[in-house]
Amino acid sequence: MDFPAPAALPVATVSDAMDRFGVADRIRPLWPGAVLSGPAFTVWTRPGDNQGLHAAFETIRRGEVLVVNGGGDETRALIGELVVQKALALEIGGIVLDGAARDVTELAALGVPVFARAVTPAGPWKTGPYRIGGTIAVGGVPVSQGDWVLGDDDGVAVVPAAEVGDVVAAARKLLEGEARRRAANQRLVPRG
Questions:
Q1: Is 80 in a helix, a strand, or coil?
Q2: Residue from 11, 113, 124, 116 nearest 64 by CA
Q3: Would you give the DSSP letter of residue 121?
Q4: What is the pTM of this model?
Q5: Average pLDDT per run of 10 along the chain, which is 192 residues long?
Q6: Which of 47, 65, 67, 91 is the right S-S partner for 38, CB 3.0 to 4.6 Å?
């Protein structure tokens, strides 16, 4: 089952539907309005090293979201404009980094949604080692290949692949309840 677009099911609502679990800590969009939704393609790399990301581009498929455990390192950017040009050409669903990025203005202009822990102008190492396709952690949340990853202005949520249907149903139910509360709020009248 594909997950609805983030506009249809916001990350905050998805998190609520998962008992407020599954939200990556301190992973933020690099520009306002960036959204992503797709199955995870996982990479675990040495902090500050992007050799594994280049290797991932050899097998990642259209629509998949590149999710990278870079050890939370904020001193070396794992991606910049040139790497994101590859992502754009391959039509991947976006990039989530537990690490840093650079070239923010150029990345926003390219339009590939990028979420990261930090921004730095310092470039990466390219010596490895890395692992592709296993279960990793990003922002303190486990992510396995094929889990559904969503991102919007509030941050990133990860939905385990086996739970997608249940989470979508629960999130839709929450949205219906929120709509009823909004309508009730609009009927409130000031006192005094």
A1: coil
A2: 113
A3: S
A4: 0.94
A5: 70 96 98 96 98 98 98 98 97 98 97 98 97 98 97 97 95 92 90 88
A6: 65
Write down the residue that tokens 């692949």 correspond to: 161
Distance separating alpha carbons of residues 192 and 159, to the nearest angstrom: 47
| CB contact at 8 A, 34 and 114 | yes
Q: Which two tokens stand for residue 59?
A: 């097998």
Query: Which amino acid is located at 109 in the chain?
Result: A
The candidate with the shortest Cα–Cα distance to 69, out of 107, 34, 31, 96, is: 96
**What residue type is 124 in one-letter code?**
P
Tokens describing residue 94: 């976006």
For the chain, where are the alpha helices, taking DSSP H only?
11-17, 51-56, 81-90, 104-110, 164-186
User: What amino acid is encoded at 52 in this protein?
Assistant: G
Length of the chain, please?
192
